[in-house]
Structure formats: structure tokens, C-alpha cells
């Protein structure tokens, strides 16, 4: 039966007692608690009883009039966290609950995300970024797999070249090209180093030492490969401006530019300027050849991960530099003051003592400058200990950032490969177009609209993706809501 009502037909909501059964978990609520947040689904249950069964079943899955019990086929663990808003005014997400599923549960119970605590919001935001990254990677895979019959032959050729040079995993020949590129980088770097050995250099007619002609030939061959590779990648690039401004492509330009500039200056130097000036310019440009070693980062996910980890550890590195700067200033000033009493002191000034403080705090200790007094040696021992402590403090967070990001990248790569396998399966069944549309919607949603849109949903079927390495038993699949 329905609860008692007033003479005007309204329910006494303050005294209302309702029972909610969520996934087998029963919870008793009172109207005065629920009415604190009238826009939530549970608060609407208090007022829906006077509207008959139609209004009741629009809010719940089932209702037992005899027990006044509402039934919901929802996640009971998430529900236990969400109802805290009625008692404490805020929500904390328990460990072990998928953040995206928890967000969907909050939307179902019509509880605003502003009640979610800041620590949990950060966790949810991290998962959002992971989903967007997976969508981006899958979209790249779909772009590679997609074939548009309306495209010109040149466009198709561009796609093939780009895939051939940028996607080593796409085919066996692409892997061979990637290995060759890596070998050319390695050979070029070795030649640059070996060319500085005096025994392997030759003397020209004017008495100047030059690199051996054989090494020059090898260098020219490597530069030719780098040039051909860069030009082909530039021609086949979908976005020329983005390609030219990319950091790794700027490194590629810096790796090959000194060769051509040096070649031009060498041939035109006698006519344009003094030969000595040309040689100085050539030597300065040849130093820029060390930039080619950074090309290895293109073929090493570990180096890319290390770069990202250092960026994410900017605060820790800044703290380390601040500690060292303060220590260097203090201990160099103390060392200079304490060593002035010794007639053969090596500490001539405080700025000169900076060098001693740096090599002492970093535990290098060249021995070119060292204290000779007792107080100076005591100061050196303290500076050594402080340096060890200062350097050790930020190392652990930096390592954690590296391991976390490296594991995340492996998870995202695995997720993208799983989606690729699913696409190949659907393509064989004639369903590739539908899957492509779903993932394009997901990618477009992450770029054009807010993440917490009703178009992005989570289910537990088909392809599963591990989003958290520490929560491996929670799996989720990306798909768009129809």
C-alpha cells in the first residue's frame, strides 16, 4: 500500500521511510535526509509515491508496495559511496572501483560531480586522459586501415609512404627500414667520434688536419640517407606545418643542416671571405652534428618515456636545483672563509669556491681544489653529506614517474592492438564501417565536447582494456552510445 498522505494529498516527506535495494544491498532512508538534495534520484523517490506506479517505475527498475521497497539493478559498491553525500555532503570513491563506471553511476543517481572529493576528481581526470589517448591511438590505426575510393592515386601513395616510414610495426619492409635508419644513426655517430682521433686524420697541403677521406665518404652516405628520409616524410606528411614544427623533425634538420652549410662555405669560402673565418664557421657547424644522436629517440620508446618522466618531474628537479644552489653558496662561502688562515690556500675567492662546492656536493671530487685546514675539512665533510641527501631526495619520485608512464604506455599500446584485432575481425564480417563510426564519434567527442557527455559509455563486453595496472581485475571497453 502507499504511505499515508495529508488532506491535500501530499506525502509527509519528512517522516517518509523508504527502502532501496541496489544489487541485493538494502538501505533504509528517511525523507528529511534525502530532501537535502531534491534534484537527486533518491529524493525524487520521496515525492513519486503520490503520482502512482507510472512515476515510480520511471525512477526504478521494480517496486514492492507491501515492503515499500525500490529495486535497482546497479552497482552496489558504487552506491555505498554515493549515498555518503546525504550524510557528509561529499563523496569519496573507494579503491577498486573503475572511475569511469563510478562517474556513470553518479550520473544515474543524479548526483553532481562537484560533490566528488578533489583527490577522486584527479583520479577520474587521469582515467579520462587515458581514454582519450586510447581513442586517439585507435583513430590513428583506423586512419591507416581506412581506404577511401575517392582518393587520388597520389594521396594513396602518400599514405603508403607515410605508413612505411612512420609505422615500423605495419609490415616487415617497414621494420627493415626502421632498422636501417637506426644503423645509419649509429654509424654516423661512430664516424663523428672516430674522425677526431689524430692517427686517423690526414694533413692537407696547408698543414691542416682533416678527417680521413673514407670517413668523409661514410659521412656523406649517412647524410644522404637522412636527407632522403626527411624529404620523403615531409612529402607524405598529412600536416606539413605540424611536421616541420615537431621537435623530433627539428632535430632531424639540425642533424643534416651542418653538412650542407659546411659544404657550401668550404666551396665558396675562398671567394666570399678569409679561409680562416670559413674554417672557424665550419668547425662551429660541425659541432652541431652531435644533434643526430637525439634521432635515436625516434626508435626508442624508453628514451621518449624518460623525456616525459623528466617533464613530469619538473617540480622535483627544481627542488633539487634549489637545494644544491643554496648548499653551493653556503659551503663555498664557509670554505673560503675557513681557508684564508692557511698560507697556501687554494680558495682564492668565493666564486672560485663554487666549483669546489659543486664537485664536492655531487660526490665527484676532482682534487684540483681541496681544503687544508681542519675547519675546512670539516666543512667539506658536511657539504658532502648534505649533497648526498639533497640528490637522493627527488630520485624516488622521478623513478616512480618513469615506471608509471612506461607501464601506462605499454597498456595503451596493448589496448590499441586489441582494437586493431577487433577491427580486422569486424572487417572480415563486413562490420568495419560501423566500428569505425563508433570510434570516430568517440575521438570527436574527446576533442569537441566535454568528457562527461552521455555519448561516451562503458560496457563490459567484447574487447577489454586494462586501464589500471594496480587494478587488473577491472576491465572496460570503449564504445559510443547509440
From TrEMBL:
Q: Which GO terms describe its biological process?
A: action potential; protein homooligomerization
- Residues annotated as transmembrane: 176-197, 241-263, 317-334, 378-399
- UniProt-listed InterPro entries: Ion_trans_dom, K_chnl_volt-dep_Kv, K_chnl_volt-dep_Kv5/Kv9, KCNF1-like_BTB_POZ, SKP1/BTB/POZ_sf, T1-type_BTB, VG_K_chnl, Volt_channel_dom_sf
Q: How does it sit in the membrane?
A: Multi-pass membrane protein
Q: Does the keyword Ion transport apply?
A: yes
Q: Where is the Potassium channel tetramerisation-type BTB domain?
A: 18-119
Tell me the keywords, alphabetical order: Cell membrane, Coiled coil, Ion channel, Ion transport, Membrane, Potassium, Potassium channel, Potassium transport, Transmembrane, Transmembrane helix, Transport, Voltage-gated channel
As one GO molecular function, the record gives: voltage-gated potassium channel activity
Tell me, in one coarse class, where this protein mainly resides.
Answer: membrane
Q: Which domain of life is it from?
A: Eukaryota
Ion transport domain mapped to chain residues: 175-409
**Any single Gene Ontology cellular-component annotation:** voltage-gated potassium channel complex
Q: Which family does it belong to?
A: Belongs to the potassium channel family. F (TC 1.A.1.2) subfamily. Kv5.1/KCNF1 sub-subfamily.
Subunit structure, as described in the record? Heterotetramer with KCNB1 or KCNB2.
Kindly provide the name given to this protein in its UniProt entry: Voltage-gated potassium channel regulatory subunit KCNF1
Q: Which organism is it from?
A: Junco hyemalis
Amino acid at each position: 500500500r502507499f504511505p499515508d498522505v495529508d488532506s491535500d494529498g501530499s506525502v509527509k516527506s519528512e517522516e517518509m521511510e523508504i527502502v532501496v535495494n541496489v544489487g541485493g544491498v538494502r538501505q533504509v532512508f528517511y525523507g528529511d535526509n534525502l530532501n537535502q538534495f531534491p534534484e537527486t534520484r533518491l529524493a525524487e523517490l520521496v515525492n513519486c509515491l503520490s503520482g502512482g506506479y507510472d512515476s515510480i517505475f520511471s525512477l526504478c527498475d521494480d517496486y514492492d508496495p507491501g515492503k515499500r521497497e525500490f529495486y535497482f539493478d546497479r552497482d552496489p559498491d558504487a552506491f555505498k559511496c554515493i549515498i555518503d553525500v546525504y550524510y557528509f555532503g561529499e563523496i569519496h570513491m573507494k579503491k577498486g572501483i573503475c572511475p569511469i563506471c563510478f562517474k556513470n553511476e553518479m550520473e544515474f543517481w543524479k548526483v553532481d560531480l562537484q560533490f566528488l572529493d578533489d583527490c577522486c576528481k584527479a583520479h577520474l581526470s587521469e582515467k579520462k586522459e587515458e581514454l582519450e589517448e586510447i581513442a586517439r591511438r585507435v583513430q590513428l590505426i583506423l586512419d591507416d586501415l581506412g581506404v577511401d575510393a575517392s582518393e587520388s592515386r597520389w594521396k594513396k601513395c602518400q599514405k603508403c609512404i607515410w605508413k612505411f616510414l612512420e609505422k615500423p610495426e605495419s609490415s616487415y619492409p617497414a621494420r627493415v627500414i626502421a632498422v636501417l635508419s637506426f644503423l645509419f644513426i649509429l654509424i654516423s655517430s661512430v664516424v663523428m667520434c672516430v674522425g677526431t682521433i689524430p692517427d686517423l686524420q690526414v694533413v692537407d697541403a696547408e698543414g691542416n688536419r682533416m678527417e680521413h677521406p673514407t670517413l668523409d665518404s661514410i659521412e656523406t652516405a649517412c647524410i644522404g640517407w637522412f636527407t632522403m628520409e626527411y624529404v620523403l616524410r615531409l612529402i607524405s606528411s598529412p600536416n606539413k606545418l605540424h611536421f616541420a614544427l615537431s621537435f623530433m623533425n627539428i632535430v632531424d634538420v639540425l642533424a643534416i643542416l651542418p653538412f650542407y652549410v659546411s659544404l657550401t662555405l668550404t666551396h665558396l669560402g675562398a671567394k666570399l671571405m678569409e679561409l680562416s673565418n670559413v674554417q672557424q664557421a665550419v668547425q662551429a657547424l660541425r659541432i652541431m652534428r652531435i644533434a643526430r644522436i637525439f634521432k635515436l629517440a625516434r626508435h626508442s620508446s624508453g628514451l621518449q618515456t624518460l623525456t616525459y618522466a623528466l617533464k613530469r618531474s619538473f617540480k622535483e628537479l627544481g627542488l633539487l636545483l634549489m637545494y644544491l644552489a643554496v648548499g653551493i653558496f653556503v659551503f663555498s662561502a664557509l670554505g673560503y672563509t675557513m681557508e684564508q688562515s692557511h698560507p697556501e690556500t687554494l680558495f682564492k675567492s668565493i666564486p672560485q669556491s663554487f666549483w669546489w662546492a659543486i664537485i664536492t656536493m655531487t660526490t665527484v671530487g676532482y682534487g684540483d681544489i681541496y681544503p687544508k685546514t681542519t675547519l675546512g675539512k670539516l666543512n667539506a665533510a658536511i657539504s658532502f653529506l648534505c649533497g648526498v641527501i639533497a640528490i637522493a631526495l627527488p630520485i624516488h619520485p622521478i623513478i616512480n614517474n618513469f615506471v608509471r608512464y612506461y607501464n601506462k604506455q605499454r597498456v595503451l599500446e596493448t589496448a590499441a592492438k586489441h582494437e586493431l584485432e577487433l577491427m580486422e575481425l569486424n572487417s572480415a564480417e563486413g562490420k568495419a564501417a560501423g566500428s569505425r563510426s563508433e570510434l570516430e564519434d568517440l575521438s570527436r567527442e574527446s576533442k569537441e565536447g566535454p568528457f562527461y557527455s552521455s555519448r561516451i559509455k562503458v560496457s563490459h563486453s567484447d574487447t577489454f582494456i586494462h586501464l589500471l595496472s594496480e587494478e587488473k581485475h577491472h576491465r572496460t571497453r570503449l564504445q559510443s552510445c547509440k
